[in-house]
Design a protein that fits this description.
Elements (H helix, E strand, L loop, with lengths): L2 H9 L3 H12 L4 H9 L7 E7 L5 H14 L4 E7 L10 H6 L9 E7 L7 H14 L4 E7 L3 H8 L3 E6 L4 H8 L8 E4 L7 H13 L12 E3 L8 H14 L4 H29 L2 H12 L5 H13 L10
Helix pairs in contact: 1-2, 1-3, 2-3, 2-6, 4-10, 6-7
The protein binds guanosine-5'-triphosphate and magnesium ion.
């Protein structure tokens, strides 16, 4: 199937075409670039919800509940779960599939798991492209679930339209550990597993963290929503909070979109440049030899990088300089 007819079918909302398109993206097939090119003009309409938090916090259970809530409100959904641990089974992870089977009969809900392995540092890229496919297919909401551990995972959620950080009681140490990474990206905090002891302590801990930050008059102060995803308690409130944030941040949406696309362009350029260097300038053996020379202090990394840049672009004297 050519990329263009696949694109047409994606744009028509064909479920099998969506699955195939995401597989192409996952395989880093060259055809994926053509596909993105063809669907891109039709994207930018979907509202992107990023959900992150420590492993096992109940993110998937929560997303499942949120999906049901959003469906009732008339939204159509795409869900992408980025799964670092579970064995990858051809596009769906068993646990997620079981948990999500409530929506199995619902044509308007498309659920897909993506493995973190095998993207060669391009997880954010693959996930963004998969979200584009769901966007092009006309889903009004796309939810991306990631474990908030790696920089890639955090970046994915950071550039969503709304970033939700899920925490659980009894993990005060986690809050300390996660602070630097995911605490600063939250638009909404969720304290899930509120059936457990220590939920209020967790809320207080987040509150005191927020108290250290300055919020200007009229600026959104991340609310904390208590949930129990297994029973659905608090999910309606979470949905209302998402809607409130959406309304509040409408004016700033352009800024988010710009940030997201800036991130993508920089990421893609870095990737493509390295690809070019590795394919055309330095074979693996040569690269390795250069690294060894740097380690031996025979050459410094700045000089080595400049040499590569000169070989890629011509000597700096000939390089176009910015006016
Ligand atoms: N007691 C309790 N258990 C919950 C709650 N929400 C989820 N769980 C359970 O927590 C476990 C992990 O839930 P998941 O939804 O898979 O958590 P996750 O954050 O998606 O996990 P990873 O994707 O593996 O990081 C499951 O056994 C859920 O049933 C809750 O509110 N209360
Ligand atoms: Mg999960």
């Amino acid at each position: 199937m050519s990329a263009s007819s696949l694109a047409e079918r994606v744009l028509a909302g064909d479920v099998r075409a969506m699955a195939r398109a995401i597989s192409l993206i996952e395989d880093e097939a060259g055809a994926a670039a053509g596909l993105v090119r063809d669907i891109f003009p039709q994207t930018g309409k979907t509202y992107l919800i990023g959900v992150t938090g420590p492993p096992g916090a109940g993110k998937s259970t929560l997303v499942d509940r949120l999906t049901a809530e959003a469906r009732q409100a008339g939204e159509t959904l795409g869900v992408i779960a980025v799964d670092p641990t579970s064995p990858f089974t051809g596009g769906a992870i068993l646990g997620d599939r079981l948990r999500m089977q409530a929506h199995a009969q619902d044509e308007e809900v498309f659920i897909r798991s993506m493995a973190t392995r095998g993207h060669m540092g391009g997880l954010a890229r693959a996930t963004s492209d998969a979200a584009l496919v769901l966007d092009a297919a006309g889903k009004s909401l796309v939810i991306i679930e990631t474990v908030g551990v790696g920089q890639d995972e955090v970046d994915i959620v950071r550039t969503a339209d709304v970033s939700i950080v899920v925490l659980v009681p009894g993990t005060g140490d986690d809050v300390q550990a996660l602070k630097a990474g995911i605490m600063e990206i939250a638009d909404i905090y969720v304290v899930n597993k509120c059936d457990r002891d220590g939920a209020d302590r967790m809320v207080t801990s987040i509150e005191s963290n927020l108290a250290l930050q300055h919020f200007a008059e009229g600026e959104w102060r991340p609310p904390i929503v208590k949930t129990e995803a297994t029973t659905g308690r608090g999910i309606a409130e979470l949905w209302q909070t998402i809607k409130a944030f959406r309304t509040h941040s409408e004016g700033a949406r352009g800024k988010r979109l710009k940030a997201r696309n800036e991130f993508r362009l920089r990421d893609l350029l870095t990737h493509r440049f390295m690809e070019h260097v590795e394919a055309n300038l330095l074979g693996p053996a040569e690269f390795e030899a250069l690294v060894t020379r740097i380690a031996r202090r025979e050459v410094d990394p700045y000089t080595a990088a400049s040499d590569i840049l000169d070989r890629a672009l011509g000597p700096s004297g000939q390089r176009a300089t910015k006016g």
